Amino acid sequence: MKKLAFLLALLMLFALALPVLAEEAPQSVPELTEPLDYSDGANWAYYREGEGKPADLFIVCPTVDTRSYANSVDLNEKLKGNFVSALDAEKGIYADSCRLYSPYYRQMSINAYTFGDEDFAKAEKNAFLDVSAAFRYYLDNENDGRPIVLAGFSQGAQMCIELLKEFFGDTAEGRALNKKLVAVYAIGWRITDEDIKAYPQIVPAKGESDTGSVICYECEDGTVTGSIIIPEGVKTHSINPLNWKTDGTPADKSLNKGALFSEEQGVIPGFCGAQIDEARGSITVPDVSREDFPKVLDVFPDGCFHLYDNMFFYTNLKENVALRVNAYLEAQQQAQGAGWRWIAAAAAAVIVIGAAAAYAVNKNRKRA
Length: 368
Fold this sequence. Notes:
By secondary structure, the protein is an alpha/beta fold. The protein has one domain. Helix content is 40%, strand content 12%. The chain has eight helices and eleven strands. The longest helix is centred in the last third of the chain and has 54 residues.
């Protein structure tokens, strides 16, 4: 196990080039005013990948920029390669059920998460400028009424929550989009009571198959009191990806259908259990240690398992995506069937009323 974690740490260190290699920082966060051109295929990591699947996935890449000061203003080929590598690590969770779309975007660098509130908000706005434009392009040119799954890990999850806020509110378009929404997998981020009060379209998942809801959690070892994902004093809504409960009911590792850390090693059933910490809302993972699964990045505290959020529960997540897509499709079929039954009943009623009226007219004529 220690060898596995060491290899994972080395992979992250060398593939993503940690902040010790960061470029000299400018004095302020740049203000981006124009989004990337998403009619250009070069600005998509995935585009219409996986034809024939019943739903569409719009997935946003996590943070892979560890060199820029605030945002990835230089989206060079090496950085794009890091985007694809990170997305490919999540891809298998969704690819059996969904056609894939994922934009390159001028994301926040890891350094931006150390900023104060004002500069952080500027960097976040820069990143979302692109993500929002990409989603708009997808809606206008690709969706064509298909069911939608939103997904992202870490910064990608953060951007998905922002998409919910901007596009899925109480407007004509927002209500129409909510009817298409299968689920939002916002893993490795947070949703708070304040978020839900301000944006009622953010609906935390309550079980394993509810649709239109947000699947959210963050993994820790039980000793963490605050992180950039769940700050100290903040409580997030979570759902346990093993027993699909939202309270502190423990889920034994026997419910874990398979962790996945590499294709070469393959799936590891029964890898770990999970339990929601009802004070923070984080997921406590009792069967792994911080020594075997180190934080890797200094922006995280010891005992934070953020980098492994998808890996620990990979197979359960994959099966859950398929379950929610199928639940959505079945509900749509039932609704359509009910609609046709109503139309048929209304048509039959019209026929009966018409026949009765004709009978009455004929009877009156005979009397006359």
